[in-house]
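Two quick folds needed for the group meeting slides. Do the first one here.
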Amino acid sequence: MLTAEERLEELERVFQQLEDESEERPIVVEGLRDVAALKRLGITKNVLAINRGVSVFSFAEQISRKWKGAIILTDWDRRGGQLARMLKEALSANGVAANGHFRTQLVILSKKEIKDIESLPKFIENLRIHQRPQIRREIRTSRQG
């Protein structure tokens, strides 16, 4: 079981990888709040919201005109899972490689404490707050020793 500090480090690593990967392929999220949440986490390039009034297949066709791959980062509730499967199928049908690895990592690291992308900034903030008392204890212990 990971400590809060280890989870925070892993999440920050995932966010850095997402930012790096988004240079080459878009990150597909459900809505504008998800786009804003990722922006607050430093992921600013090529984040696309699917809920813009077009069908999943039309959205996949639009992506295929510009990119060869896409990162699926839908929420991890039932609806988000269904949307991820639909997106993967539609993207594949349009010749776009769909990557769901980051979504899986976030599900594991959030331990069911949150279920959506828009909750990530607050979740990270809470992990950082939880980490501060531990750091203070370590500093006190090292000064006493």
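Then this one, please, same format:
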Amino acid sequence: MNYCEEKYNAKRYIISLNELNFFKELQKLIDAMDLNLLTQVSLYSLIETKYKKYNYEEFNKIKSKSIDFVIADKKSCRARLCIELDDTTHNSKSRKKRDNFLNELFESVNIKLLHIEVKENYDEDIEIIKQTIIDVMSESEY
């Protein structure tokens, strides 16, 4: 057995069951609006540190974090709206601290971030997301 076979396994699923249920509902909306829907996107794919050289402290704050869902333009693949699906783990002190950091971070880089609570039915949330997408897409592009 080689080193990798000994140390690693493939994850069975990319996203949780709660995320999958939300994804299915969100995908219908995204298809109708001709956008891209991405899942589990790393923060460093969305956001970069201002001073790239030797900026390890700031990079370390984002390197291991991901966003549950990113809605992006099809043409440019520019992130227009990010969504965090909040389950009961978001009630912990450490998770609240992480969420506060994400809220501040996304506001500072002018990318809209929505928090949606896990539910059995997302009809109301989908309407809020749809209106948010319309609002965000009407803003000028950089």
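Slide caption for protein two: The chain has one domain: 14-137.
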